[in-house]
Amino acid sequence: MSSSYTDKKKYDVFLSFRGEDTRASFTSHLHASLQKAGIHDFRDDDSLKRGENIYTILQAIEDSRIAIIIFSKKYADSRWCLQELEKIMECSKTKGQIVLPVFYDVDPSEVRRQTGEFGKGFQSLLSRVKEDHEFLESSMGVFPYEDIKWTESLREVASIAGFLVLNSRNQYEAIEDIVENVTGLLDKTNLFVANNPVGVESRVNNIIQLLDRDVQQSHDVLLLGMWGMGGVGKTTIAKAIYNKIGHKFEGRSFLANIREVWEENAGQAKLQEQLLSDICKEMKTKVPSIEYGIMTLKDRLCHKKVLIILDDANTLKQLNALCGSHKWFGSGSRIVITTRDIKILRGIGVNQVYEMQHMDQSEAIELFSWHAFKQASPTKDFAEISINVVEYSRGLPLALEVLGSYLFDREVTEWKSVIEKLKRIPNDQVQKKLKISYDLLSDDTVKEIFLDIACFFIGMDRNDVTLILNGCGLFAGIGLSILVERCLVIVDHKNILRMHDLVRDMGREIIREKSPEELEERCRLWCHEDALHILSEQTGTKAIKGLALKLPRTNAKCFSSKAFKKMEKLRLLQLAGVKLDGDFKYLSKNIRWLSWNGFSLTYIPENFYRENLVSIELENSNIKLVWEEDQMMTKLKILNLSHSHFLEHTPDFSYLPNLEKLVLKDCPMLSEVSPSIGHLREIILIDLEDCVNLRSLPRSIYKLKSLKTLILSGCLMIEKLEEGFEDMKSLVYLDVPSSSSHELSSFPNHLPRLQSLSVECSSELQLSQNAAIILDTLHATNYKVLEPAATTSQVSNMTSTLIQCCGQVHVSGSKQSFQSLLIQMGMNCQVTNILKGKIVQIMNINGSDGYLLPGHSYPDWLNFSSEGSSVTFQVPQVEGRNLNTMMCVVYTSTPDNITSDGLKNVLVKNFTKATIQHYNREASVSLEDEEGQRVVSSIEPGNKVEVVVVFENDFIVKTTAVYLVYEEPIGKKKNKKDKSQTAENQFLWYYLKIFVVAIVFHFLQKLIDFIHSKVV
Questions:
Q1: How far is Cα 581 from Cα 979, in angstroms, rounded to an integer?
Q2: What domain of life is recorded for the organism (predicted)?
Q3: How many other CB atoms are found less than 10 A from the CB of residue 732?
């Protein structure tokens, strides 16, 4: 079928018939049956004046996908019918219109040969036309042509397989067959998408662009996953994709609500049967078992190009039963899977994952307005309050639709009441949809982790939360991964835990709805009004596992410690602006996390049970010493006493053998650190920033082989860093004060993991050969250029640029081995060769262990670089040029040689288009691979893009740079070509002139010789 007729047409069917023969019976019944089946047909009315409306009818034929011609005995007796026939056959040949002949009480051979009663009518028409003097005058010379053309059309259409109707004897059966056939041809299986499809088209086009990519493996079969939280619009977009491109495939199927259907009685077989029925329409296959269904699907679909949408899958078992592998399907097939769980997409081996993006503000306002006001924007009186509702919905289409419909035709006062209610109780429809993801968590510990994060840990570091929850026996390492895979928790680029506001509210509502009236029976208290009531009334019970009460420190409230007496299961306690009066023995022995901002006592009371504590966070406290009596605390992982301005002494660290994080930031009265700090064999981070009275560090600190981060900035009294850094093998980040910066020369040669040294510079800093080798990136807080201690000839360029400094640093004598890998995506060209040459030249000049990179060479290339394994940038507009190639240069400090074998993946995230594209090792190292050309062509000016390189675990990526290479302007190319052509022409003309002169000279020479011989 040609593309003209696969597009949407005004009519599904055009009915061509002789009214006086069939209108009263067959045609009227057929018309009614088509209408009942939802098929829109065009049927000329008796009131139409044929001569005046023939052009309307001919246009209707063009606007129809199928033409049904009902041949009756007197059909060819009508010149208008034959004109319709002529137009239909023309559209069939030129536009692919489908023609279905119906022979009503007429034998097809009579139509084909124009014999019998049908032929008599046709001959009668020709006779009348001949006798029509007016027609002959206006059509001089045309009649013989019309005779031949009509005869040919009748012969052709009668050769098409059609339907034979023997008057009234089988007309009802015939009508049923015709309608069924037309339904199949029209494929009237398009799905309802949305009444107001805001933002749908752009997302559909983005996904179709991914589906249109060329797949080099797996027989050109592509599996794409659409991943996102409930209510984000996965099913809506999938339906629109199904409708838009389904006609391009030999078969298509949309399996809806797989998660629900799978759990029904015989639901698994039902899904396989539906898939077989949708694709192989003529086959009615009964599936007795999943295994039988798998074998049948593989056998029936392996030679078909199909589009299959698997909507709302949640287990790998479902996918294995419905789309087990690429080999199940014929070349060109596309399988789209929507899910909330990215893990099952990895399990089935999808080629692409499309992460669903929430609506931006303009889209959200429009969608909300269509439901709340039945127009594209809010009315004037509701503009401001509409923005409040849209902000609450955070771009979630489900919430925008539900709340918009709920608020339709309500007064402003009602809107305000609804908004206040939503702050405490989510909308039940939204809650029900989002809660599905929670209900699908089969592990109770993962559910506990989710509820803890929703109530207390949003905005905290993932590693800290993992330590705390592990201390609660919840196995947070795997639990958090599951929650991220299910779109319930987000971990941002800084490793901070985030959660969509509506998902957070869903979790909190799960807790509230279990005890809507009795606060004391809720397992967690996060709302300060509720917690305030419980502590004031001392009504807490053993049901409470976590409590947060954060009040202004300037207006602290005092409660009796007895308020905690019955909270025996309390394990998470977060307080701010709170004082406790009474014995601390009433606090639960099960507390793992104690976060108390503004702790008012000078030390933690002895009768407070501490042995189960995992994290103590007492920022802005009045503590002078942490506790009076030391007590073994083997479970403590985090001790944070930042901004405790009265702290004078650190605890005896030998009683904290498993401490991993020590944060004593901004403790100005602290003058020394206990030498027992050397007992911290598990310590990862020590932060002593702005401890201005600290004069030295104990030598034992240099023996901490597990320490990764040491922060000393602002410790202005430290004049000397002792020798001993050679044992700090794990040190990754070091931040030293300016007063001790001159001691960098004493640093040894072997700190293999150090990635960053931050120095507060108040004067020029001399870096020796030994100091230089540990540097990856120097951070400076002033604007002075750092001068090298060695001569220029000795300089290697292991260091690139100062992040916060105006100058470029050169350091000397580096022996650190830095390896590089070049990844090119897109076309190879003269500019890429020049760029690669510059990179190689720099490496040859400066040694293989350096990584100074070429800068901008506008407009041939632009470069963006960043520490680590990812680079984020906005694609600039380069006038008159298109992006041709993207080159990525990666440097690592891995001791072993870096090769493409260590590269696992390259991800290109287009935040503007909401796409994530994955590139395997084989594709990404190819210099002119089609895959790379495709990704480059999809990147447009203004797009925000992130390029991420993923290596094996042993690789430490130091720096990543991305070069955007632009092709030459078309005009410039043409000019160069013209110049080249001109030069070539001049070259040829020059040699032609030489050739002519040589011939003339040779002829003259011969002439002179001849004359000379005659004279002689």
A1: 91
A2: Eukaryota
A3: 18
Together in a domain, 566 and 666: yes
Q: Residue 245's domain is classified under what CATH number? A: 3.40.50.300
pLDDT, residue 848, reads 40
Burial of 316 (0-12, 13-18, 19+ CB in 10 A): middle
Boundary-marking domain end, from 331, 355, 379? 355
Q: What is the DSSP string of 629-698?
A: S----TT--EEE-TT-TT------GGG-TT--EEE-TT-TT-----GGGGG-TT--EEE-TT-TT-----
What CATH number did the domain enclosing 702 receive?
3.80.10.10
Give the type of residue at 88: I
pLDDT tens for each residue of 276-330 = 988 887 566 788 999 999 999 999 999 999 999 999 999 999 999 999 999 999 9
The answer to whether position 582 is within a domain reads: yes
Indicate the SS3 state at residue 16. Answer: strand
d(Cα 391, Cα 394) in Å, to the nearest integer? 5
Are 14 and 155 members of one domain?
A: yes
Strand-pair partners of 558:
579
Residue 437 lies in a domain: no
Which two three-digit tokens encode residue 955? 């690789």
Q: Are residues 619 and 665 in the same domain?
A: yes
CA 714-719-722 angle, to 5 degrees, is 110
Question: In this structure, is the dihedral angle defined by the CA atoms of residues 473, 476, 482 and 484, taken in order, positive or negative?
Answer: positive
Strands (E), 896-956: 903-910, 915-919, 944-951
* Ordered DSSP codes for 170-185: SHHHHHHHHHHHHHHH
Q: Helix crossing, 383-393 with 361-372: angle to 10°?
A: 110
Distances (CA, A) of 517 to 512, 520, 542: 9, 9, 17
Helix (H) or strand (E) holding 235: helix 234-245
Decide if 794 contacts 768 (C-beta within 8 A). Answer: no
Q: Three-state DSSP class for 602?
A: coil
**Are 242 and 177 part of one and the same domain?**
no
pLDDT of residue 235: 96
Query: Using CA atoms, how far apart are residues 414 and 412, in angstroms rounded to an integer?
Result: 5
Same domain, 729 and 842: no
pLDDT attached to residue 806: 22
Q: Are 333 and 307 in contact (CB under 8 A)?
A: yes
pLDDT of residue 787: 28
Report how far residue 279's alpha carbon sits from residue 306's, in angstroms, rounded to the nearest whole number: 8
Residue 411 sits at φ, ψ, to 5 deg, of -80, 165
Residue 796, domain member (yes or no): no
What's the pTM?
Answer: 0.66
Amino acid at 117: E
Owning domain of residue 983: 976-1016
945 vs 105: CA distance, rounded Å: 68
Which residues are 883's β-sheet partners? Answer: 966
Task: State which of 355, 381, 407 marks the end of a domain.
Answer: 355
Q: Which residues of the chain have pLDDT under 70?
A: 1-8, 22-24, 45-53, 132-148, 167-169, 187-189, 214-219, 282-284, 722-724, 738-751, 755-757, 759-819, 840-852, 858-859, 893-904, 913-931, 952-955, 968-1016
Tell whether 561 and 683 lie within a shared domain: yes
Cβ pair 57, 84 in contact under 8 A: yes
CA distance 888 to 925: 10
Among the options 20, 52, 84, 448, which is catalytic? 84
Counted domains in the chain: 7
In angstroms, the CA 908 to CA 925 distance is: 15
Domain match, 472 and 573 both: no
Tell how strand 98-104 and strand 795-796 pair up.
unpaired
CATH number of the domain at 156, please. 3.40.50.10140
Question: Is the domain of 717 the same as that of 627?
Answer: yes
Q: Does residue 176 have an active-site annotation?
A: no
Identify whether 193 is part of a domain. no
